[in-house]
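Write out this protein's structure.
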Amino acid sequence: MEPVFIGGLSDADLKFGIDINIQRNGYFPLIIQDPQSSFCRCYTIGLSSIGHPELTMQGAEAPLVYKFMHHLAHDVMYHQLVLGHGMNIRWYGSTLNFEEIGEACRFAPEAAKRYGPEITLLEVWCPDDTDPQNEAPEYVIG
């Protein structure tokens, strides 16, 4: 799955891309890039369909943020990884923290349009800011 940056896409093209990817994979990580800086936000669309919170992460390196969101969403969708507010896990060599945030319409507008503004949204924090490695996840939950 390749990252999709929404700049310049029509609403119809964006919806079509999201629909196709959700049909194919069950989820879609969407990147929103700030054109004035290297800052980006990525959030998932589709995890709400299985009763799991949508995930969001921000950072300066879009490919790394996208990689985290894609792999996390995949593990939620296909390996029954369940994440929630206040959790800390060790995942692919990285420590991740999860915090529930409100304002899904602000931070994940396409997910809120699809599943409603009351969806649960978890912010993913990676304090050690490392690239997830190609190793098995440890899933040490604390």
